[in-house]
Amino acid sequence: MFHSPCTGSKRRAAIIAAGLSLLLAACSHAPKPDATPTPTATPEPTTASPSPTATTPSPTPSASIASPTPSAMASKSPEWNPTLDQAVAKEECGHKTHYWHYWETLSGSDDVSAIAQKTYNNGFKCALTQKLNDGSVELLVPKGAKTFTITAGQSDYSRDTDVTVTFEISDPISDKVLDSASLRLNEAKEFSIDVSSVPRLKLKVVAEAAQGDSRKSDISVIAIWADPKFS
Fold this sequence. Notes:
alpha+beta, 12 strands
């Protein structure tokens, strides 16, 4: 059978077209490459913060209100005007008899406190109602104090004018008398005591008695210690 050249060309073209179709079909079914993977970030090492060390809180001291103690008063400023309630020891006037009397502050007294016609508001006093009655007040010397000053005398309102009262300042630790004065009505003395080496002072009063006088002899005298001051 005779085939023309034109017919052969058509056959080759058809074969080529079929091959291309198969090739295209094969390409369309081939798996597509995955997308470029995103690099995974490497986690940076972290340093763990150290756990806080547990601490035990110190106990909070309970607040308390205490009366002045000798040690507390001894640490006061050297510039100090001591009061009766800061005394570390007291012996009431006439304490050796049944007729004793309390020490009282000048500021708290109902009566005017005057010595040799001069009025005082700071200090303390007590009544002596029998011959040889005595009484005392003791004070701590504050740290750093060099001098103690105080004025002593009988109250202008004492009724007995012929009674002498001895005012004595001593160191009760050593029993050493530092100074003293025997004063009658309308007499006053200002004491100035070196306390640089003295830890404590005792202020004592005694109603003197003449020779032959009985302790039971009644009197009416008020002894005053006025304007006490450490400096």
